[in-house]
Amino acid sequence: MRIVVISEWNQLAPFEAAWRRLQADASNENPFLSWEWIEAYFCVFRPFVRPLVVVALDPTGQWRAVLPCERRRIAGSWRVGPVAAEMGADDLDMLWAGPEPRQGSDIVPLVAAALRHESAPFSSWRALRADGWLVRALASELVPDWVLSLQEDEQLPYAALPNSYDEFLRSKSANFRSEMRRRRRQWQARFGGPELRTIETPDEMPPAMEVLFRLHDARRAAKGHRGLFADARQRDFHHRLAPALARHGQARIYQLWAEHAPRATLYGFVGREQYFFFQSGLDPHWTEHNPGTVLMGELVADLIARKATRFELLRGAEPYKLRWATGRRATLRATWARGWIGRSLLWAANTRRRWRRYAA
What does the CA dihedral 244, 247, 249, 250 come to, rounded to 10 degrees? Predict the structure, then answer.
C-alpha cells in the first residue's frame, strides 16, 4: 500500500471520480465525506484552509482509502484536523474500501502522514465517528512519537422511524402526543393546512437557501445572538453545496407556509434511508404559533411516508431535539501531544475536562 499526501486543491480537483468511486465502495453515505462537501469547502474557504488529504493506493494505483484532513493557519502555526469539523461536520471518519484493515497497522500510517504536517506540539481532532475505522484503529495502535487521548465530544440525538407517524407518536410520552396533536389542530384552525413544501431540485435551492438564511439569522438576532449565515462565506458555501447535492438527490429543504409566506424552514441532507438535520430557521414574529414544532411534526411524517428509517438530528443535545429523539450517541475527540510541552498541554486539558464533569 503506497501513501500519497495531497496538499493543494489543484492537485485534488482532478480526482473527483476516484473519490466518488471510493465513497460508493466504502458504503459510507455521510454527506460530510462527500465530494460535494469537500469541493465546496476548499473552493470557498481557501486560502484560510488548505487540503491535507492522505490517500492509500493499491498496487494497481486505485484508491483504497482516504483520510480527509485540512490545514488551518492558527496563531502562526499550521494546524491539522478533519475537514470542516469546526463547521458542523459530524461523524468524521476515513473512507476505506476493499478487505477489512488489519486493526491499526493499515490505518495508522495514514494518520502519521497527516500529523507530519502538524507544526504545534498539541492537536485536537473532533467530531470523529465513535465506531468508525479511524477511531477503532487509533484505539488499538499508537501513532509514532505522539501520545493520544480519546474523549467523548458531542452528543448526537437521533430518531429511529417506524412504519407510521401514529406508531412514532405512540412511542413518545402522553404529554408529547397531546401537545403535537394540539399544536397541529391550532395551526389548522388558524391557517389551514399545514402547508408543507419540499425543495429538492438544484434550481429551487438558491431561493430556498435565502429563506433559510433570513429566518435563521432573524431568529438568532431575536435571541441576542449572531446567526451562522451572517458570514458571507457561510452563505457562499451553502449556495454552492446545496444545488450540488440536490443534483444527486442528496439535499432537501422543508418549509412550513402560512399566509402566503414561509414561517419555518429546515435544511438537511438525504441518505438512502436517512435524513440529516443540518440547520433551521423560523420567523421570530410567529413564535406564539409554534411553527418550528408544527414543521417538525410534518417533516417526521413525510420522512416516514418516504420509508426513511432514521432521522439524524446531529450535533447538539438541545431540548427541542431531545423531545423528538428516540436515542443519542456521541462523537469522540482525539487529542494528540508530542514532547514535554504537548504532554503538559494534554494533561492540563484532561484535568480541566475532569473538573468540568465533576462540577456538572
Answer: -10
Number of structural domains found in the chain = 2
Cβ atoms 58, 98 nearer than 8 A? yes
Tens of pLDDT along 283-332? 999 999 999 999 999 999 999 999 999 999 988 888 889 999 999 999 99
Q: Give the model confidence (pLDDT) of 63-80 as tens digits.
A: 999 999 999 887 777 889
Separation CA 359–CA 46 (nearest Å): 40
Phi then psi dihedrals of residue 249, to 5 deg: 70, 30
Distance CA 52, CA 44 (A): 16
Question: In angstroms, rounded to a whole number, what is the distance separating the alpha carbons of residues 57 and 63?
Answer: 5
Q: Which amino acid is at 285?
A: H
Phi and psi, residue 146, nearest 5° = -120, 140
Residue 54 lies in a domain: yes
Whole-number Å distance between alpha carbons of 79 and 49: 10
CATH number at residue 257: 3.40.630.30
Element (H, E) at 262: strand 261-270
Judge whether 157 lies within some domain: no
Residue 16: HSE in the Cβ half-sphere, 13 Å Cα cutoff = 8
Instruction: Find the domain containing 127 and state its range.
Output: 2-152+338-359
What's the rounded Cα separation, in Å, for the pair 254 and 114? 39
